[in-house]
Each structure stands twice: as structure tokens, then as C-alpha cells.
Amino acid sequence: MTNSFPSGFCAASDNALPVHFVSTADLPAWRAQQPTSTQAWLEAQAFTASAGSAVLLPGDDGIGGAVVGIGDPLDAYAYAHAPSALPVGDWRVASAHDADTWRALQLGWGLGAYRFTRYKAAPRAPARLAVEALDAEAADLLAACVRVRDLVNTPTEHMGPEELEAVARGIAQAHGATFESIVGEELLAKNFPAIHAVGRASHRAPRLIRLHWGDATHPHVVLVGKGVCFDTGGLDVKPADGMRNMKKDMGGAAHAIALAELVMARKLPLRITLLVPAVENALGPDAYRPGDVIATRKGTSVEIDNTDAEGRVVLCDALALASELSPHTILDFATLTGAARIALGPDLPALFANDDALAQAWISAGERERDPVWRMPLWRPYLRYLTSNVADIANAGSRMAGAVTAALYLERFVPEATPWAHLDVYAWNDSARPGRPAGGEALALRSAYAMLKARYPG
């Protein structure tokens, strides 16, 4: 972590006002310990400490403090409304908390203080939490979540394949990682034909971004992220409303990049490789077409049924490379299917895995961190929906079980013996809620980190 405070935090100060975090269940006991005047004030306002509530307390010279109602004290988002619910100024936590609660509180406050201000100033500044020092892990987790939000929120004009590469390169330099980018026609020379096929129509050259970090004696984990920096749908062009937010189609890459950065910042005992196929799925005279049969790194031929199912096409080359590295585990992140959103909604990423222990480890971490995933089946009989008459496999087919068939397609490029998990993630908030501003969002990032931390203790 850095020495400077992130947005929403400041150094401890005697001028900071006290803020109490209280749940409905704990309110009676807490209120009984307060002065009679405070008890009367809370009763007059019918304050119940319900989750998401806040009330100001009077003082001799104006505001004397505040009480913030919370739900689950280990859920970071229980605290995320506070920076906006409280007046602008400096606040300090009035009572001590155990380490896990303190970590969740700081993370939640930071998430609630987030504002994307690259193009527009925030309507108001967040209230600041005055602290002696931030918990180091909470600070790094917050930085990772902010990384995802900033990357996804940035329009493609300023976050195309080259710009995404620059971000990853800067992270590699900061952490002493090795870095490589395979760009344009070099993709064909180095046998990444599927990535090239999807990205060749754009004036912005497609590329495969590769970062490597860690001790050779540590377990090797490969992180793969779908980096489609904008998705028109290709020749199977999306309608306007479907294309409107497609700057977010690199949300999987944002998660993989942020997770790699987090692993390096926390110095987990891992050896990691980050692979991001970064492309723009554009319309143009060189666009790949429905009915084309394209080659892949693995040698599996793919008939293009739908050019808007491009994410799995770029991922398959990256997964093939990941498999060649013989890692202990492969994790991929992708804003892959609308079907996953229909099934599970925007907040619950769909998890597919070929290894029960890996899947359960992520599910358990999600429960602990209040950052959930939901396992979906790799129902292999549905491979029939990807049958091609002219190639080994089609990239799409039926509208049935769309998230499942996309995952099954990816599984074709991963060895059966290699533990692999695929996260179909939305990476977006359609509307604003406390701590969850409209726009880019990190989902299951914290649980992915917690899973790796627990799975590979060193």
C-alpha cells in the first residue's frame, strides 16, 4: 500500500467527530449506555439503527457526532452509505472493533467514498474517516476494487487495447514482474489466430498482454481476463441499447489485472501469469464473418455461428497458452453472457469449474467475505448446441443454456487434469446504491483473492 490516504480517509485528528456504528439488535444495549439527552434525541427521531440509516447527534456547538445503522458487521457494504449519509467533514470511529470488523468498516467506507471524476466533478465530497493508519490488507483490497471500477468506467476512446496494455505494463513495472505484449500480425506469427481474427477489423491492433511474477518454487496460477475493449457485436451487430455500455466488455480483464496486482501487493506465495487478450470487436471490411472457420492455438477449428460471441473466441487462445504452462490452477474472468445475468441477476457472478474442491473453495471464500459467487453446471450434454457440420466446434448455436454452453466452449481448451474456474461476471451496476455507484463494479474479486490466500498459504 502507499503512504497517502485514499479518497474518503485522512489522518487522525482531534477535530474529527465521533461516529458510532450500531445494528438494530445492538441498539438497545448501546442506547442504554448513552446520556439521557441522547436517548431522548434518538427516541424522538424513531431511530432504529436499520441498515443504511444514519442520524446526527447534537453537540454544544452544532453537530456532536452521528450514529450509523448497519446490518452484517462483516459485510463491507454495511458501512458504505456513511460517506454520503454524513456531512462533509472528518469523522472518527467512536469505539473499538475487532480486526475483521475494522477491516470491513474501512473497506466499506472506501467503497462508499469512491467517485469516478475523470470527466466530471463529484456533486459533493465524501465524508472522511480519520484513522491512525489504514489496515494494509483493507487498503490493498480497496485499491483493487477501485482499479476495476476505474478501468471499466473509462470510455473505450481512452481505454482501448493499447491503453489497457499500458496499465498492465505499469503494474508489472511497479512490482518487478516481467511483461510482454504480442501485437497485430505478430499474433499470427506466434500462433494466436483466434485473437487476431476477432480484433483484426479495428484500427486498434489486437494484442495478447502477458505478465509473469513470483518465485519459481511457488505454486503457479494463471489469471486470464477477457479484454474486449468495445463490442459492437461485429457483423452480427448489436442494437443500440445492447451496445450502449459495451465499454464494460473488458470487465473480465479489469478483474484479472486487479487480482494480479492484489496478489503482488500482498506478496502471496504464488507464481502468477496474467494473460489478457485485448481487442476491439469492430465493424469493417476485414471483420470476421458468420460462417467463417477460424483456427485456434490449440488446433481446434471453430465455425463462427455468431460474431457477437467473440469473448470465448479470444479467450480460447489465451486458455490454450495457459494450459501449455502446466499451472496448478487457471482462473478466467469474463463479461461473457447475458444468459448469466438473466439467470442470476447483476450482483451474483456465475461460477463454472471442472474441479469441485476449487469451486467450493471460492464459494466458501465468498461466504466469508460477503462477496458471493454461485456455481453453475458444466452440463456436458449441452455441447450438442455447439455442433458444427464443417468445424470441430461452433462458437455459438442455440439460445438454450447460453452461459453453460459458453463455459463448455472454454472448457474444450483446458486440460481435464488442470483445475480451472471460469467466472461469468457483469462488472457493472445499472443503477446507484449506497457504496455501489452506477457504472463499473468489482464482483467476486475479493473472494477470489481470499480463496487464493486460503488455498495457497505457503
TrEMBL record:
CDD domains: Peptidase_M17
Organism: Luteimonas aestuarii
PANTHER family: LEUCINE AMINOPEPTIDASE-RELATED, PEPTIDASE B
Gene Ontology cellular-component annotations: cytoplasm
GO biological process: proteolysis
GO molecular function: manganese ion binding; metalloaminopeptidase activity
Family: Belongs to the peptidase M17 family.
UniProt xrefs under InterPro entries: Leucine_aapep/pepB (IPR011356), Macro_dom-like (IPR043472), Peptidase_M17_C (IPR000819), Peptidase_M17_N_1 (IPR048816)
Listed name of the protein: Leucyl aminopeptidase family protein
UniProt domain Cytosol aminopeptidase: residue ranges: 306-313
Keyword Nucleotidyltransferase appears in the UniProt entry: no
Domain of life: Bacteria
Record key words, sorted: Aminopeptidase, Hydrolase, Manganese, Protease
